[in-house]
Amino acid sequence: MELGLAGKRAVITGATKGLGLRIARLLLAEGCDLAFCARTAAGVEEATADFAASGRRVRGWVCDVRDADAYRGFLEEAVDWLGGVDAFIPNVSAKGGLTGEAQWQANFEVDLLGAVRGMEIIGPQLVASRGAALFMVTTAAIEHFPVVQPYNVMKATLIVYAKQLSQTLGAKGVRVNCISPGSILYPGSNWEKARDANPAFFEGIRTSIPEGRLGTAEEVANVAVFLLSPAASWINGENVIIDGGQTKRVHY
């Protein structure tokens, strides 16, 4: 299938590892130019070298999304450097944690405001290009999770935010969707750590999935890039579950 991404311009936060890295690689493989950020200079340098093989225009910035001014500065520079934006993925997360109010603040600043602040700047660019945005959620946001934590709550909030944008910006030709990965295993992932630290828990999760395995980062990236592409032109305001049937609720 031709996704129609050749020559498009993408901005993604946190593209140096994990799901963000795989999404960035696939966007480049499909012919996008890419602006990205990460917190460490070493990570940005390594990813830039990795991405160079694509032959596309790529530039990385060192930026902590929790620093609102620095984050806005990165986005403005990225827009100027790319000459506009066709696809936006606020991928950075403060992850799960149980450190009290500090964790609530971290997930609010990074997971939620990272998307909100991003759309304030990138949204008009997407209107100009009739582009798309994609928010990274999680299946922990759509059903009960064994641990009560702000990560789940803030991710769930993104679903509502995306739905609202899909209506207001949708009238201007912009699509805004979410993806909710389930248990995804890749080097350095939390599930890799869980497998080593708590094998019994890991096996319980693995066997709860119909295929008896966890998903891969590449399987998530495939869906993400499709939703950002013109090939998904009639998908707007949706939260797409990517979990191999791990969640058991029925969707009507």
TrEMBL record:
UniProt keywords, alphabetically: Oxidoreductase
GO molecular function: oxidoreductase activity
SUPFAM superfamilies registered for this protein in UniProt: NAD(P)-binding Rossmann-fold domains
Protein origin, superkingdom: Bacteria
Keyword Oxidoreductase: yes
Keyword Oxidoreductase: yes
Database matches in InterPro entries: NAD(P)-bd_dom_sf, SDR_fam
Gene3D superfamilies per record: NAD(P)-binding Rossmann-like Domain
Family per record: Belongs to the short-chain dehydrogenases/reductases (SDR) family.
Protein name (record): SDR family oxidoreductase
Organism of provenance: Sandaracinobacteroides saxicola
Lineage: Bacteria, Pseudomonadati, Pseudomonadota, Alphaproteobacteria, Sphingomonadales
